[in-house]
Amino acid sequence: MSLDPSFVGRTYPPTAPYQVGREKIREFATAIGATDPAHHDLEAAQALGHPDLLAPPTFPVIVTMAASSQIVEDPALGIDYSRVVHGDQRFAYTRPVVAGDELVCTNTIEDVSTRGGHGFLTTRTDVTTVGGEPVVAVWSKIVVRGEA
Amino acid sequence: MEFPAKTFRVTRADLVRYAGASGDFNPIHWSDRFATKVGLPGVIAHGMFTMALVGRAITEWAGSPDAVVEYGVRFTRPVVVPDDDQGTEIEVSARVREVTEDGLTRLDVTATCLGEKVLSQARATIRTTR
After folding, report:
1. Which positions ≥6 away from A53 have C-beta within 8 Å?
2. Considering the domain boundaries, does residue A49 fall inside one?
3. Does B63 lie at the interface with A, CB-CB under 8 angstroms?
4. What is the count of structural domains for chain A?
5. Cβ of A28 and B49 within 8 Å?
6. What is the rounded CA–CA span in Å between residue A42 and residue B118?
């Protein structure tokens, strides 16, 4: 799968706000077995100094994965999603995500390459509040497997 | 310094629950028919589910659910989850690479399944003073 290197540096328009709900945090924490009360109980989260329920560290992927459809479904880039596997993932937090956050994602393509018949795409997603406060920067590398 | 290893059991039910909670409904995580058709050895765990379990281990070692400042992994090998009640196990361990002057601890993390490394370059930075 050959990807067009001229896409490096491209930034997409900010996505529509994602409203982080308490029940979504509870559901996600339960799904990964995260039993810390700060994910489930408002008073426990507030005792740690947070305004509302605390999301586990990988929770932002819910928001960024949805936002990345902007790139992987960009017809100009031409990715065959059935051949995509996840390569790398990294989060750098300014602060944790909490319930009540309204999060906006701005996607940038940082790197595009083709090696051994496979395409590699690295994206950075800057996740901010609707007010522009930085929350977390998320890097993701996907591999588009070539035809065997 | 090393942290005590943690073991997480993963079954098909966990993958279905994670699919629902995360919104990642890729059929390679629940359909043997689909997974084998695309050349996988069977249904595999979401890489992000493995990353989330390792994240649990990190926050538990840190002693605080909000201690993680930075966290990254490379997915090197799929975690195959058989369709039975036992599922499979992911074992997670970590050692301290560096403690910085400004109160941050950098960890090198290892995650294995059936003795094989499933993540590489797994690193986290945690806040050790609030």
Report:
1. A22, A25, A26, A38, A39, A40, A41, A42, A45, A98, A99
2. no
3. no
4. 1
5. no
6. 35
Q: pTM above 0.80? A: yes
User: What is the residue range of A60's domain?
Assistant: 5-21+55-144
ipTM (interface predicted TM): 0.96
Query: Does the residue A71 lie in any domain?
Result: yes
- How many residues appear in chain A? 148
Q: How many domains does chain B have?
A: 1
Q: Does B75 touch chain A (CB under 8 A)?
A: yes
Supply the CATH number for residue A123's domain: 3.10.129.10
Distance of CA B115 to the CA centre of its chain: 14
Q: Which domain holds residue B107?
A: 2-127
Contact across the interface for A88 and B55, Cβ inside 8 Å:
no
Return the pLDDT at B100: 92
**pLDDT one-digit tens code per residue, A41-63:** 999 999 999 999 999 999 999 99
A72 in any annotated domain:
yes
CATH of the domain at B82: 3.10.129.10
Q: Is residue A43 part of a domain?
A: no
Q: Taking CB atoms and an 8 Å cutoff, what residues of chain B touch A38? A: 65-66
Q: What values do phi and psi take at B107, rounded to 5?
A: -115, 145
Calpha distance B46→B60 (Å, rounded): 21
pLDDT above 70 for B130: no
